[in-house]
Design a protein that fits this description.
The protein is 34% helix and 18% strand. By secondary structure, it is α/β, with parallel strands linked by helices. It has a 3-stranded mixed β-sheet. Strands 1-6 form a two-stranded parallel ribbon. A two-stranded parallel sheet has the order 2-5. α4 packs across α6. The longest helix is centred in the middle third of the chain and has 15 residues. The relative contact order is 0.25.
Amino acid sequence: YLKKFCKENKSYGAICLRYFNPIGADISGLLGEEITKNSKNLVPNIYKVISNKKKLLKIFGKNHKTKDGTCIRDFIHINDVVEGHLSALNFLENKKGWYAINLGTGKGYSVLDVVKCFQKILRIKIRIEYTKKRKGDLSVSYADVHKAKKQLKWKAKFNLNDMCESFCKWKKLI
């Protein structure tokens, strides 16, 4: 709708920001993702195992064509997403038209990379169970961030350890 609107109304500008797997918590330690009984994402489910609300972490598939057999995804720190939004607003000050821009790190981490990162930070073992691959799950998915770098002058700053550590600090695990 926005693309069509901007095409028909040349004096308007809009950006569709497509983020890839936001995780972590605000670096202030005050805000983070609320964990509910129905949370389906990886990090909330890791937390459920850490906090003994679940016995083990289910990992969907161990036979993906990746280095460790688990899915690879582009995880991005929530503070990087916020900075991406600010960069997008600055970009739109002088631009008209419609833009679609990915916000991600441009590299992937496997599900096991994320689990191992939490294990290292917390010095614990996270119990896992492999289950069947989910229908339609891609083995590898990460952002092409060239437009974000070129047009928004933006790039992700936080690495996987930063993402996991900020979540642990927010949940007062460390």
